[in-house]
Amino acid sequence: MIKYKRILLKLSGESLMGSQNYGIDPARLTEYAEQIAEVSRLGVQIAIVIGGGNIFRGLQGAAKGMDRVQGDYMGMLATLINSMALQAELEKQGIHTALLGGLEVKPIARAMSRREAIAELEAGKVVIISGGTGNPYFTTDTASALRGVEIKADVLLKGTRVDGVYTADPEKDPSAVKYSTLSFKEAYSKGLKVMDLTAFSLCMENDLPIYVFDMDTKGNLCKVVEGQHIGTLVANNV
Fold first, then answer.
1. CB–CB of 182/231 below 8 Å?
2. pTM above 0.70, yes or no
3. Which end of the chain has fewer surrounding CB within 10 Å, N or C?
4. CATH fold of the domain at 6-235
5. Long-range contacts: 116-125, Cβ < 8 Å, 24+?
6. Cα–Cα nearest to 86, from 138, 15, 143
7. Where are the domains of the chain?
8. By the 8 A CB rule, do 178 and 230 touch?
């Protein structure tokens, strides 16, 4: 039984570092690709947006005096590097992919098109969407919300190293309590940082549920699409 037929999976760039301080950990990349391949073989349509924080963040550059717009475009290219790495690993495992982008980079990434993305999904390919929204001042959280709405995903899955949304940071506060479900209004009123505010608003206004779960535990992605409740669901009607 599959609960979600079409998903938008958001991965952070930092998660690809694994135990490293920078760049891409080959072992972590393989683990993620194996989970994605497993779900793809179940017939689930998968689109993926990856951040670029393991390589470069525009905000970090701006904090050191770099022009914000230039830094954001550099960050978009960092997401392309991560997307290419995941694409190569998935194809090594026999999964057909398509790489689209908010920035068109010939011959690597075709320009993002809603119709093309949906056609590739329906053809059974994993669609990786790089380059954020293609515009500065927007995060990859916002890009994942936008792409999820565009492709009419059933849910936005936010894969993190934490198994859900808590009352406080569980890595800093041992007394933090995990939420099983939250409405968008509850999450906003409590000041919980599920995603950035622009992304959060996009999901709420377009009725796209967000599911936060631990992606670093092998098999969890499959559990989520099969309907096992192992994380935190944020939605309008819960």
1. no
2. yes
3. N
4. Carbamate kinase (3.40.1160)
5. 117/47, 117/147, 117/150, 117/151, 118/151, 118/152, 121/6, 121/45, 121/46, 121/47, 121/151, 122/45, 123/96, 124/40, 124/96, 125/96, 125/97, 125/98
6. 15
7. 6-235
8. no
